[in-house]
Structure formats: C-alpha cells, structure tokens
Design a protein that fits this description.
The structure holds two protein chains of two kinds. Chain A contains 16 helices and 27 strands. By secondary structure, chain A is an alpha+beta fold. Chain A has three domains: 131 residues, 2-Layer Sandwich (Aldehyde Oxidoreductase, domain 4); 178 residues, 2-Layer Sandwich (Aldehyde Oxidoreductase, domain 4), CATH 3.30.365; 316 residues, Aldehyde oxidase/xanthine dehydrogenase, molybdopterin binding domain (Aldehyde Oxidoreductase, domain 4). In chain A, strand 25 and strand 26 form a beta hairpin. The radius of gyration of chain A is 26 Å and the shape is globular. By secondary structure, chain B is of the alpha+beta class. Among the domains of chain B are: 46 residues, Uridine Diphospho-n-acetylenolpyruvylglucosamine Reductase, domain 2, CATH 3.30.43; 103 residues, CO dehydrogenase flavoprotein, C-terminal domain (Enolase-like, domain 1), CATH 3.30.390. Helices cover 29% and strands 21% of the residues of chain B. The N and C termini of chain B lie far apart (50 Å). The chains are: A alpha+beta, B alpha+beta. Chains A and B meet through helix 3, strand 25 and helix 16 of A and helix 13 of B. The structure holds flavin-adenine dinucleotide. Flavin-adenine dinucleotide binds next to strand 2, helix 2, helix 7, helix 8 and strand 8 of chain B.
C-alpha cells in the first residue's frame, strides 16, 4: 500500500471514541476499586493542621490520608520533567491548592462528601504572591540555554539607525485539556500498576519507581486514551503519587480524578513571563541586534525554565544577539511545559517587536521578515531545511496580504475597524531514542506495539499508516497497541517528538519484519504483494507462525551538523469595535513547513488547534490570583475563558511540502506545537493595525482598547 | 456536596407548605444555579422541593401584554413569537444568555433568583458578607474586574448576573408572587434589593414565597427595544456590561425611555438619570451622548473594574443609537 503515508486517512480509533468504547483512565474499573478525593489548601503559605475526625466517621470512608499517616516516599524530582512533589510528606503548605489530605471511600460521592467535612486550620506564613515582589535569579537548570551571547548586542543597539525596545507580558495560563487528569493505582505485593492520563508511560514508570523506591520493572503504567495533554500531562503530578500511596494505605486499588477547579492546583501551568525585546536595525530593516531578556516565575521549591528566548536565535539572522533567562520564586505550584513552552511566549514578544520595527522602518511586515531570513542559526549551524520564506509567501498569497493598507485604522467594515497581522513561527525538531515491535501474524495481518501515547493527536493512525505502508497492507489489516510501559520504549508525546521518535522506530521495525518476509520469499518481492492473504500464504509455505520485526532507533549524527526546526507563518484578520473594545478574529491563515506530513487530516487538525489556542492566548486566557493570599480566583471555565465556537473563524492551514533527509528515517519534524507559535503575535499585530494601539500584555481584553 | 432530601411538589400549596415547615428548604426549578452552588458548598439546603411539575409554564397573551409563567424555559420564552415581536430586548437578552443546553433547562423564575457569580461568594474559603455575614468583602480590594461600579456598599460589590432581569427592567415587568398572604405583585425594579448592610438579602421575597409569573406590559417602547451585551468572548459568558434600551420616539421626540444596565450593580440597574436626559428631547446623537454620560453618574471603580464606567457610557450610547435608529 504505498502512498498510504501522507494520505488523509480517518482516525483508526475514531469509532472507539465516538461510541464511547475507548476507555480513558477515569473509566478504568477494577475489582475492589475505591475512590480518593483530595482536600486542597486554600492558602499559599503556612502550616496545615488537619482535623479529619468527622470525615473519618462519615459513611463509606475507608481512610483519610494526611501527613500523619501517609506512606513515606521520595518526592524529590530528578530532572527530565520530574517535579518535586508535595505529597503529604510534611505539613508545610507552599502554594494554593496543594494537597493537604486525601479521603478514600467506597464511592466517589461519599469520598467527595467526606472531603468537604475535613477541617483544615492554617498557621499562616509569609507568601510571595506578586511577580514584581520576587527577587530574580539565574536558574541552575536550563544549561547552555539560559544565556546566549553573540557579538555585542547592547553596543549594536545603541548605534542602530532604527530601534524598538519593549516589554511584553504573558500571564499565567492553565492547560485545561478536556479530559481532567486521572489515576487508578493498584498494588499487587510490590508490583504497582497505574492507569494514568499521561503523555509518557515510560517516564511515568521511572518517576513512580523512584518515588516508591522500587525497581522500574515493578511498575507498569498504562495510558491508552488521552483527552488532551498539551504538556500538562508530561510529568507525574501529586495526585498520581497520592493515588498509589492511598492504594498502599488501604490495600485496595484507588482512583483519583481531578475536578475542574483542581486542574488549577498541582498539575502545572504556563508561567508568567515578562520579556524585554529590543531590536536594532538599519534603515533597510536588516537586523543588527536582538536582545531578548526573559523573566519568568517558578515555585519556591522547584525549578522550571522554558527557553522563552530561544526562538530569537533561530528566526532571523543578526550579527549581535543577547538572550537571557531569569527566574523568580513565587508561592505557586511549579509551572510546566505548555504547548510550545518557550516559543509560544517568546514569539509573542519577538514577533510583536518585529511588527513594531516594520512600522518604525516603514517596511512591510512580510518583507521585513523575508529580508532577515537566514540560512544558519545563531551558532552558525546550517538549517537542515527551512520553509520560512515559502510559508510567508504562500500564506500572504492565500490570505490576501496585498489588500492590506498598512496605515493603522485605515481599514473599516461599517463601524468596525479591520486589522491584518502577520507573525513568523518556528519550533525545534526533537527526537529521542525509541524502540518498536511489528509482529506479522499467521493470517498475514500485523500488530504494532509501542509505549508511545496518543494524546489525541492521531498517533494511533499515523503509526498504523507507517507500518502498513512498509508491509504493503491496508490500514485495516494492521492492529496497533500503544500506551503501555510493557511495550517497547518510546519518549513522551511532548516536544512534538513522538512521531519523529516512535514513528521512526516503527518504520525500522516494519522494515525488519519486511526483510524477514523477503528472506522467506527468497528475495522475491512480488510474493509480498496482495496484502494479508499473500503474506499468509508466504508464511504458510515457509512454515512460520509469526515474524517479529524489532528496532532501536536513535538520533543520528545529523543532529550535530544541522539546526533542525519547523518554520511557519501566521496571518490573522480581526474586527475591532472601536467603542466597546471587543476584538473578534474573523479569518486565520497559517502555513507550515514541518517536514513530511504523514496524514494530512490529523496534521491540519494540529494546525487548526494551534490557531484556536492562539486566539485564546491573544484575547482570553488569564489565570488571576488574589495577590493578598495567592489564591487563584479563576479556577473554573466561567472565569478562565477559552475560545468557544463563536470565537473561532475559518482557519485555513497550508502545508508546505518539505523533504528533509536529515531529521530522521521518516522525514518528519513535528507538528503539535508550532501551530500556536506566533499565533498570538499575529492577532496582536492585527489589533495594532486595526486600532493603532500596541498591546504588549496579554490577553487583549476590552479595557486595554477602551482608553 | 451536602446530603439533602428531595421532594416533588404536586401543587403550589404543598410546595409552599414544605418550605414553611423547614427554614433550610429551597425550591429547585431547572437546577442550573442551585445545584452548582450546592456542589461548591455555598448553598446547603436540607430539602429541595422540585416545582417543575407545577402548572406555571404558560406564555399567554393578556389584555395588557404577555404573562410568562415562572417555570417557562428560557429557550421557550426566547422563541415565542409574541416576545420576539413585542419585546425584542427580552428575546435578545435570553439568546445572549448561557448556552442552548442551559436555556433548555433553566426557568424564568430561577433566572431572576440566580445568585451572583462573584468568585469570592462562590469560594467558601474566602471572605464574603453575602455568604457568611460579617466576614468582610474580599472583592473590594481583590480580583474585582467583574464587580459593581454602582449600587454596592462596603459590605458587598457583587454584580447581579442575569441578562433577562435587565431586559425585563426596561419593559417595566411585574413579578407575580404567591406568599403566605396570597398573591401579590412586585414591580421588577423593586424586586431585587441593594446589599447595604445586609448583602445576604437579595430580593423582597420571604422564605417560601413562590414566583408564579412575570407580566410584561405592552408598550411602544417595549416594541422598540434592544439588548447589547459586551463581553470578552463572543458567546457563553456573563456580561462585562450590558444595556437594555427601550425608546418610543414620535415626531422626532422621545416620548418614553427606559435604560437598564447589567454587569454594573448588585441588582439589575435602572439608569434613571439617563432616562431623564432622554425624555421629551429630540432623538439625536447629542441627546443620546448626554444620556450615556448621565448613565455613568455616581459610578465608582475599584481598580480592575474601572473600565466599566467608560464601557457603560459607550454601550449606552450605542444601544440608544440602535433604538433611536440613527445608526
Ligand atoms: C455555565 C452557565 C452560564 C450561564 N450564563 C448566563 C448568562 O450569560 N446570562 C444569564 O442571565 N444567566 C446565565 N446563567 C444562569 C442561568 O440563567 C441560571 O442558572 C438559570 O436561569 C436559573 O434557572 P433554574 O431554573 O435552573 O434555577 P434553579 O437553579 O432551579 O434555582 C435558582 C434559585 O431560584 C429559586 N427559584 C427557582 N424558581 C423559583 C420560583 N418559581 N419561585 C421562587 N424561587 C425560585 C431556587 O430556590 C434557587 O434558589 C448561566 C448559568 C451557567 C451554569
């Protein structure tokens, strides 16, 4: 079935999902299962004293786990997405909505009821709740990404013919995937099985093994279906450890499912960033200096740094560059990866600044970006492939950029102001080691196994396509199993790397199986033509029951030689009501060159989803804290706004074909994250074009346009 | 969520008797507000008396207008041709409320009785005089972007969340209530009460009083009415500011005017000063601008919500231009 890869194949798990047959972690039923409900702190700093007497006496309650009776675990993180976790090891409260107790009961309702009976008193301690009040420091983690210097950016900026210099703010945002986090944990002696809504079962297995001090081989993590992760499910969070601790305590399987308000608790968020971006250029618009300084928040007990400024080393050429990252410790939970951590925020600052430079130089914003295109990154490495130019060109064409009158407030639709904005995008191509198994059965059908998790993006489908194509089978004759740590190892579905990593491994495993089939056919490739029937006949003649193809795929040397990134361009059109300050996005075109596209349908979904989130980031999303207490006051979907259908216009993704022989065996670069990169900047730039108001702090809500 | 009892009432008398017997009992209609609050631990009724089987669903024309039963669904009222024609502001306000699913459950009586969305009120760990009298109002110097700029007190600056009530205010709606002493009527303007020093008290209803209907008097102004709702996103959000405007213009002069505001006060807010600035004047842009300015008189922000004052002025102006047919 050559030509399968790339085809807009329907999701192979689509029927399971729409019929409800796909079981998510919260739906796992085990004999003897009991239900845990967490009690969360209501203050950001202090010492908790838990009175659980009433809860313990409540009907159906099996146990109330508090720091007093909680099993001891190793809750310190060990890098690689591991977090230090607040899991009832002491009474100290370090952030709002930190777990202070877990009630376990025979039903979810009774556990919920009893949890409401737990009384917690706090001895308050000072809390750092204001970004501005926290001292800045240079992070220990982050390695060589923390600071980057090339030439003398400050001096070049001082001498530049044209300069722009601004501060850009992106507030705290929470992931809010449709499916809340959920864990079912079961012990069988020293063997731990965890059904967990996670983006990576291998990573989760390692973390849980270390937390409980047991061998990795004693832990199995299963994550079959995920209703969205977006980075928030890339780490093991307190509820998962607490479920396993509680299961130990009550000696029964325990389920913990987070409520929506609890989704604002301990499961990570996009940290607030305050970025200074200064650009120096000649009057021809060519950049002579980029300064990109980021200050971001982390928690008082752990460190998370996103490479917010990294995009400034990739998007444009400049002889002088300074990128710095600093952190501040606040009494919040620990921030984490959220769709394009780093790039999503960094691009808002850089690409807003580029728009400002376009106005300062009088050069068209698309043209300005084309002029600053580069063939090497800031370290002088050539790009393995780079579609920025093509994305800008094709995007502008489809969008109708030439119809734009660049003067602010010059375009109208009745009483509404019309704005058109552009931004560029890039996201690095990551890849990690991965293994896979492709087994050919006696009936000629095949089974693919990988521990990689389909977080809703379509991995089940594209992996099936890859294996089917190599074996010459139709998609229906290939069965696929993912999301079980018992299967061959794969990295997290994060950093847009799962397809590149596990997809390559599956291709190699399929090739291995194919080679064995060919050997069976004594090299006669025609014997493999004819789908499962032909293969079954071949195996029958050869007298073999099954054939196993295996692989251990890892990044090659090219990663050292080349800078590998996806590139793209975002175009947004807005209508702004000049009296009321309301902004609606009415059209969105985005174009991406992201290597080979394995399935046009699922790829377009990723690009559309990125734009939708870009609308949320630009106009709506904002976690608000009460700065007196550190309490989150927007912990629900009525106060934390995300776009609804009426906010989302037609979004037209353009796929730029790209054939990159360097990235990996299957030529893919990753498409999950780049869709949001630059999206908010394109909208903010469109708002500027419409109104003449440059909003540098997101979201762009009516009050910022009323003045 | 607290344990509670549930009973279905067969008639109004037994529903009222059930409440009379238990000071912690509550009616439940569509349940879209009261159940929410029970889950948050804000409301802890001992007994829910389901009134949805009472015969109060009718939407009927009367000699003087339309009478809407208290249990009529938001969706049915919005879709009713007499409402759409004679009270467009009401239909528009309903269609701009919540979501289709909610409107298919929620009732008119429940909508008038819904409680504030103030995040401090809904979070039992926080200070709130309305939920826990005497604890203080955390919103006054807290996260108050959605809070009141008029009508509040040092005890409470919440906003009333209903769109419908704002629209009804602009058409002089009258609430029919059945209480211990029998039926009585209350003009909607006097139905909700300002917080003052008793923010826990939100309406003139006594425990056990049952709303039976809302009466909408017909008028030329009501026929020429409009609802403008300003919010961050295009749908499914409570108002930052809303305006219900009803205008009767004859011979170029304004013969009757109603301007009501939502999202600005602890009750649906009638902008009397704006109405006074309209009455008897020519229906011109200048008149509307002056009325819009008057609508903001006495308004005061608390930081994050300062912008609402400007927004009120702009939104009132816009709504008046719409009903004044000059835009
Ligand atoms: C997500 C969401 C979004 C929303 N958005 C909007 C919006 O944009 N605009 C808007 O206006 N509203 C909005 N609402 C609120 C919604 O309109 C109300 O919840 C609904 O109208 C309440 O009606 P109900 O019948 O469900 O009331 P219930 O929840 O059943 O009752 C609410 C209260 O009214 C009392 N009650 C009910 N009927 C009577 C009666 N006949 N006599 C005396 N007391 C009675 C009950 O005892 C209870 O205290 C939203 C609600 C939700 C959940």
């Amino acid at each position: 079935m050559s030509g399968l890869v790339g085809a807009p194949v329907d999701r192979v798990d689509g029927r399971l999902k729409v019929t409800g047959a796909a079981k998510y972690s919260a739906e796992i039923a085990l004999p003897g299962l009991v239900y845990g409900v967490m009690v969360l702190s209501t203050t950001a700093s202090g010492t908790s004293q838990v009175d659980a007497d009433a809860a313990r006496r409540a009907p159906g309650v099996i146990a109330v786990m508090t720091p007093q009776n909680a099993p001891r675990v190793d809750s310190g993180g060990n890098g690689a997405g591991d977090r230090t976790l607040m899991v009832l090891q002491d009474e100290v409260v370090r952030y709002d909505r930190q777990p202070v107790a877990v009630v376990v009961a025979d039903t979810f309702e009774r556990a919920t009821d009893a949890a409401a009976m737990v009384r917690v008193r706090y001895a308050a301690a000072p809390a750092v709740t204001r970004f501005d009040a926290a001292a800045e420091y240079k992070p220990a983690s982050g390695g060589r990404d923390v600071d980057k210097h090339k030439g003398d950016a400050a001096a070049a900026l001082a001498q530049a013919a044209v300069k722009v210099d601004g501060t850009y703010i992106v507030p705290v945002e929470h992931h809010n995937p449709m499916e809340p986090h959920a864990t079912v944990a079961q012990w069988d002696g020293d063997q731990l099985t965890v059904y967990e809504s996670t983006q990576g079962v291998i990573n989760a297995r390692r973390t849980l093994a270390q937390t409980f001090g047991i061998p990795t081989a004693s832990v199995r993590v299963v994550s079959k279906f995920i209703g969205g992760g977006f980075g928030g499910k890339g780490s093991v969070w307190p509820h998962a450890v607490l479920a396993a601790m509680a299961a130990k305590l009550v000696n029964r399987p325990v389920k913990i499912v987070l409520s929506r308000p609890q989704m604002f608790g301990s499961v990570g968020f996009r940290p607030q960033t305050v970025q200074r971006v200064a650009l120096g250029a000649g009057s021809d618009g060519r950049l002579s200096a980029i300064i990109h300084e980021t200050s971001a928040q982390t928690s008082v007990f752990d460190e998370f740094m996103a490479g917010t400024g990294a995009i400034s080393a990739v998007l444009y050429g400049t002889p002088n560059l300074t990128i710095t990252h600093r952190l501040r410790r606040l009494n919040t939970s620990t921030p984490t990866f959220m769709r394009a951590p780093g790039e999503a925020c960094g691009s808002f600052a850089l690409e807003s600044a580029m728009d400002e430079l376009a106005y300062a130089t009088g050069i068209d914003p698309v043209e300005l970006r084309l002029r600053n295109d580069t063939q090497v990154d800031a370290d002088g490495k050539p790009f393995s492939s780079r579609a920025l130019r093509e994305a800008l060109r094709q995007g502008a064409e489809r969008f109708g950029w030439s119809r734009r009158d660049p003067r602010p407030r010059s375009m109208r639709d009745g009483r509404l102001l019309v704005g058109m904005g552009v931004a560029a995008a890039s996201y690095p191509t990551h890849r990690s080691a991965a293994s896979a198994l492709v087994r050919v059965n006696a009936d000629g059908t095949a089974l693919v196994q990988s521990s990689g998790v389909d977080i809703g993006t379509g991995a089940y489908t594209v992996f099936t396509q890859i294996a089917a194509e190599q074996l010459g089978l139709p998609v229906e004759q290939v069965r696929i199993e993912l999301g079980d740590s018992a299967f061959p190892a794969a990295p997290n579905a994060g950093g847009s790397q799962l397809t590149a990593s596990a997809g390559s491994a599956i291709k190699l495993a399929a090739l291995d199986a194919r080679a064995k089939l060919l050997a069976l056919a004594r090299g006669d490739a025609s014997a493999l033509i004819g789908g499962a029937a032909a293969i079954a006949a071949l195996m029958r003649t050869g007298g073999v029951e099954t054939i196993e193809g295996r692989s251990d795929a890892k990044p090659g040397d090219d990663a050292q030689k080349y800078a590998m990134h996806s590139f793209g361009a975002q175009f947004a059109e807005v209508r702004v009501d000049p009296d009321l300050g309301t902004v609606r996005v009415v059209r969105f075109v985005n174009a991406f060159g992201a290597g080979r596209i394995l399935n046009e349908k699922t790829a377009r979904s990723q690009y559309i989803g990125g734009a939708v989130w870009g609308i949320g980031m630009a106009l709506l999303e904002h976690t608000r804290y009460d700065e007196r207490s550190g309490r989150i006051m927007t912990a629900n979907l009525a106060e934390y706004l995300v776009p609804v259908n009426a906010d989302v216009p037609a979004i037209e993704p353009i796929i730029i074909p790209e054939d990159d022989p360097h990235v990996n065996e299957i030529g893919v670069k990753g498409i999950g994250e780049i869709g949001i990169v630059g999206a908010a900047a394109a909208i903010a730039n469109a708002v500027y074009h419409a109104t003449g108001k440059r909003v540098r702090d997101l979201p762009i809500t009516p009050e910022k346009l009323l003045a | 969520m607290n344990a509670f009892r549930y009973a279905q009432a067969r008639d109004a008398a037994s529903a009222m008797a059930a409440l009379a017997a238990d000071p912690r009992a509550r009616y439940i209609a569509g349940g879209t507000n009261v159940v929410d609050l029970m889950k948050e631990g804000v409301e802890r009724p001992s007994l829910l008396v389901d009134i949805t089987q009472l015969p109060l669903r009718g939407i009927d024309r009367t000699a003087t207008g339309v009478r809407v039963g208290a249990l009529a669904l938001m969706s049915d009222v919005a879709d009713h041709p007499a409402i759409a024609r004679d009270y467009p502001v009401v239909a528009q306000a309903l269609l701009a409320s919540a979501s289709p699913q909610l409107r298919n459950m929620a009732t008119i009586g429940g909508n008038l009785m819904q409680r504030t969305r103030c995040a401090y009120f809904r979070d039992v760990s926080q200070h709130c005089n309305k939920r826990a009298p005497g604890t203080g109002c955390a919103a006054i110097s807290g996260v108050n972007r959605r809070h009141a700029v008029v009508g509040g007190s040092e005890q409470c600056i919440c906003t009333h969340a209903s769109d419908l009530a704002v629209a009804l205010l602009s058409v002089d709606a009258i609430v029919h209530v059945r209480g211990r002493a029998g039926e009585r009527t209350v003009p909607l303007e006097r139905f909700h009460v300002l917080p003052g020093s008793t923010p826990q008290r939100e309406t003139v209803l006594e425990h056990g009083d049952l709303i039976t209907a809302v009466e909408l008097p017909a008028s030329a102004a009501a026929r020429n009415s409009y609802y403008l709702k300003v919010r961050d996103r295009a749908s499914y959000e409570f108002a930052l500011v809303s305006v219900a405007a009803a205008l009767n213009v004859a011979g170029g002069r304004i013969r009757a005017a109603r301007v009501a505001l939502g999202g600005v006060a602890p009750t649906p807010w009638r902008a009397h000063a704006a109405e006074a600035a309209l009455l008897g004047r020519p229906a011109t842009g200048g008149t509307f601008a002056a009325a819009a300015e008057a609508a903001t008189r006495g308004m005061k922000g608390y930081g994050q919500n300062d912008f609402k004052i400007v927004l009120v002025r702009r939104a009132v102006n816009r709504a008046l231009q719409h009903v004044g047919a000059i835009a």
